[in-house]
Amino acid sequence: MLKRPPIRKKRKKIGGRKPILKRDTFTKEDISNFLKDKKIKLQSTLFLYRNDYKCPSCSQVFGIFGSWENAMNYVWGRSDFIEPEATIEYLTNLVCKYELWNSSRYLKERRKNPDLVPTYNKIIKKWGSYNKLIAEIRSKSSWVEINIYMSLWRNKDKKPTLSECKKNKINLETLVGFYGSKAELDWFVSSYLKIESEKGKS
């Protein structure tokens, strides 16, 4: 006579499923008050609260205000806290001024000055890699000529003259065209040399 196989009892799962956390809902005023209380002016700062479900998320801000810029205008009454755009002109000045020639230095500066330095994701979206951005900066900014212009300024402690630029094969028109004006070019070079001088003293 065949014996019926023993019936195995199902083990009870200890703990069970974790409860699904749901983020609180917020009104326009709730979000405004939260951003003011925490002094939040950048998306990246709000993102730090992503795991706190009692705080509004970036998507909730966009859903109510339409854009981060609209939220900032509503909360602070002005739009000068918007993250800077990642244009080649802006990034060229930034990279050259702070010597951000590799991604690690860029990310370090981003953590230090989020109001000044665009997010790294913007660069990756636009150029694909940080090295490609640097390659474009070097090609478009005539970095070799800028270096010569800087060394002339550094050696004589004053702006190079037009004749000195011609003698050293510096295409001043190209540099001025890239920076927008001679004043902008000279401002960039003088700022760079000032930072260089301060580093030498420390």
Helical amount among residues, as a percent range? 55-70%
Number of helices: 12
Distance between the terminal alpha carbons, to the nearest Å? 96 Å
Overall pLDDT confidence = 79
Number of strands: 0
Sheet with the most strands? none
List the quaternary state of the chains.
single chain
What can you tell me about this protein's structure?
By secondary structure, the protein is mostly helical. The chain folds into 3 domains: 28-76, no CATH class; 88-140; 143-201. 59% of the residues lie in helices and 0% in strands. It has 12 helices and no strands. It has helices at residues 28-37, 43-47, 58-65, 68-76, 88-98, 103-112, 120-127, 130-140, 143-156, 162-167, 172-179, 182-201. Helix 11 packs across helix 12 (182-201). The protein is elongated, with a radius of gyration of 27 Å. The mean pLDDT is 79.
Which descriptors apply to this entry?
202 residues, mainly alpha, 0% strand
Sum this structure up briefly.
The protein is mainly α and 202 residues long. It is built from 12 helices and no strands. Helix 1 crosses helix 4 (68-76) and helix 5 (88-98) runs parallel beside helix 12.
Topology:
Elements: H1 28-37, H2 43-47, H3 58-65, H4 68-76, H5 88-98, H6 103-112, H7 120-127, H8 130-140, H9 143-156, H10 162-167, H11 172-179, H12 182-201
Helix pairs in contact: 1-4, 5-8, 5-12, 11-12
